[in-house]
């Protein structure tokens, strides 16, 4: 869709032609949208003047940047149909402290298969929001319609046909390039291809993306450009017809950037729909783009080919000088699980089950080592049953603690988690030791609260294991006239545990383990499926943060 040769979409026509309404203040003009960013600085003033000689020498160098030989079409991967994306009257609002904020304001667009489309705009223009909406990462607060190949988008099917490559290269650092691709092939293709066909597809992808020479190199040793190509290769395993990329050239030098954009253009020419955001592309890179979608303050002010952007801006009074980079007229501004889950490598249930089973043996082994040393160093009786139950109690407590930690980690990041965890554990610890020495003289309501703490049940289980089951009297030193708790039964009575059942406490701890494991999965699913601006981040937690700042 070209803004000069074909009728502009409503969002462009709305801004470019209704000057009378703009003068009344009801509609912003393109100049108004581009003249100021959110910090009040003049964007046109931020453009640095360059001498013509320096620009000409730079362009001559850029045009001589070597590119790879002509690449071949992928033939070993699963065939997918081409998909065009269209959206009409798209809006997006979020809740803030001062009310509802409109991020996207009734825009229209058409992203065609076989082309590489770049979403550009000033800081706060809505680029990331638009990308997240199209990907399906954001659903709440979104209005308007999104179509694929002329039919209304079915998000579940769309997610299977698309891939989202995030700005940060979230890769398994200890695997080699070949191992990473083979694992991705097994996870993403399932039974679509047999073992030999999967290996052939991996070999073809490595050859096409120029990764063959480093196939036995660990990912952590790859360069920035190699990691970016590997991130693209991992998603090409199941050959998605739509690929979204967030800042694919960030941190790359000009040569590597040119190679990455050339690769994306090559993939687009095979019938894929490539949509990306770029941070101040050079003039050479800018003119490599097939389609530019320009945003400013939530409005679409241009969509069309890159080489006609300058004439379009000149028509509205923004003249780009010959020595300027056209992209300089528009200054620009969570991880492995999120990427792989969102790109449908596996289900969240499979990931959670695999993670739990992988961590459990380590927890059990290290807990047994610690508990055995503790049992021996504390001079406990040489009783096999007591020793085994001491280890079993320790293992259950460790598993419950890990489950609680996972619940907290599913909701908070590392920085906030270090604050929240003590706040959660401290009350449990206080309830665990409350009433020690009072015997059974504990208030009924406190007994109810004490049962909430899994540490209370674990403490009772440990106490009954060590001092129950008819344990012999403790040795009273001859220098002491009278030992008040020489009889273990008297000690348990003073602790209020004489009439309690060890197995009952074990069942309580197992119940807590199951509860926190289920809760952990629910919280993880909530975090993976809810948008960044939903109640999860923009609602309840944001409200708590505001209260903390005000106090």
UniProtKB/TrEMBL annotation:
Residues 42-60 have a biased composition (Low complexity). Residues 1-22, 38-60 are annotated as: Disordered. GO terms for molecular function: ABC-type transporter activity; ATP binding; ATP hydrolysis activity. It comes from the Eukaryota. Residues 85-322 form the ABC transporter domain. It is a multi-pass membrane protein. Keywords: ATP-binding, Membrane, Nucleotide-binding, Transmembrane, Transmembrane helix, Transport. It holds the Pfam family ABC2_membrane. InterPro entries: AAA+_ATPase, ABC2_TM, ABC_transporter-like_ATP-bd, ABC_transporter-like_CS, ABCG_dom, ABCG_transporters, P-loop_NTPase. One of its GO terms (cellular component) is plasma membrane. Signal peptide: none annotated. The chain crosses the membrane at residues 351-376, 388-412, 424-447, 506-524. It is found in: Membrane. Belongs to the ABC transporter superfamily. ABCG family. Eye pigment precursor importer (TC 3.A.1.204) subfamily. This is ATP-binding cassette sub-family G member 1-like. It comes from Diaphorina citri.
């Amino acid at each position: 869709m070209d803004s000069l040769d074909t009728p502009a979409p409503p969002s462009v026509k709305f801004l470019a032609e209704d000057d009378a309404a703009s003068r009344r203040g009801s509609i912003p003009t393109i100049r108004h949208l581009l003249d100021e960013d959110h910090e009040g600085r003049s964007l046109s003033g931020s453009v640095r003047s360059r001498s013509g000689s320096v620009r000409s020498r730079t362009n001559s160098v850029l045009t001589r940047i070597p590119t790879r030989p002509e690449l071949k079409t992928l033939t070993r991967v699963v065939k997918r149909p081409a998909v065009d994306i269209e959206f009409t009257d798209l809006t997006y609002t979020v809740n803030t402290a001062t009310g509802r904020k409109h991020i996207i304001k009734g825009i229209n667009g058409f992203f065609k298969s076989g082309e590489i489309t770049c979403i550009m705009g000033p800081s706060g223009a809505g680029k990331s929001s638009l990308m997240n909406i199209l990907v399906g990462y954001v659903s709440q607060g979104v209005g308007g319609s999104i179509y694929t190949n002329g039919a209304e988008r079915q998000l579940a099917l769309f997610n299977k046909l698309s891939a989202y490559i995030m700005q940060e290269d979230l890769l398994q650092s200890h695997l080699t390039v070949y191992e990473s691709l083979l694992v991705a092939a097994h996870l993403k293709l399932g039974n679509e291809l047999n073992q030999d066909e999967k290996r052939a597809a991996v070999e073809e992808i490595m050859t096409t993306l120029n990764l063959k020479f480093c196939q036995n190199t660990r990912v952590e040793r790859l360069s920035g450009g190699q990691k970016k190509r590997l991130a693209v290769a991992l998603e090409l395993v199941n050959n998605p017809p739509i690929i979204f990329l967030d800042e694919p050239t960030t941190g790359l030098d000009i040569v590597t950037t040119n190679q990455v954009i050339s690769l994306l253009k090559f993939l687009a020419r095979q019938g894929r729909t490539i949509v990306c955001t770029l941070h101040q592309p050079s003039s050479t890179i800018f003119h490599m783009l097939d389609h530019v979608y320009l945003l400013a303050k939530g409005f679409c002010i241009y969509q069309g080919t890159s080489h006609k952007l300058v004439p379009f801006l000149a028509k509205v009074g923004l003249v780009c000088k010959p020595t300027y980079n056209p992209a300089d007229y528009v200054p620009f501004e969570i991880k492995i699980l999120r990427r792989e889950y969102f790109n449908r490598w596996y289900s969240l249930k499979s990931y959670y089950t695999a993670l739990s089973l992988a961590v459990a043996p380590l927890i059990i082994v290290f807990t047994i080592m610690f508990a055995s040393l503790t049992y021996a160093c504390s001079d406990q009786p040489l009783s096999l049953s007591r020793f085994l139950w001491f280890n079993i109690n320790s293992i259950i407590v460790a598993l419950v603690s890990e489950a609680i930690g996972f619940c907290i980690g599913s909701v908070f990041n590392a920085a906030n988690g270090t604050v929240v965890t003590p706040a959660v554990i401290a009350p449990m610890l206080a309830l665990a030791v409350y009433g020690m020495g009072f015997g059974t003289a504990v208030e009924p309501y406190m007994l109810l609260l004490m049962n909430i703490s899994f540490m209370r049940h674990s403490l009772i289980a440990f106490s009954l294991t060590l001092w129950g089951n008819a344990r012999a009297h403790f040795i009273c030193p001859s220098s002491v006239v009278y030992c008040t708790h020489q009889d273990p039964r008297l000690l348990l009575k003073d602790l209020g545990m004489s009439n309690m059942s060890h197995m009952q406490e074990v069942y309580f701890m197992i119940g807590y383990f199951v509860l926190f494991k289920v809760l952990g999965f629910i919280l993880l699913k909530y975090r993976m499926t809810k948008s960044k601006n939903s109640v999860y981040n923009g609602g309840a937690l944001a409200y708590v943060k505001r209260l903390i700042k005000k106090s």
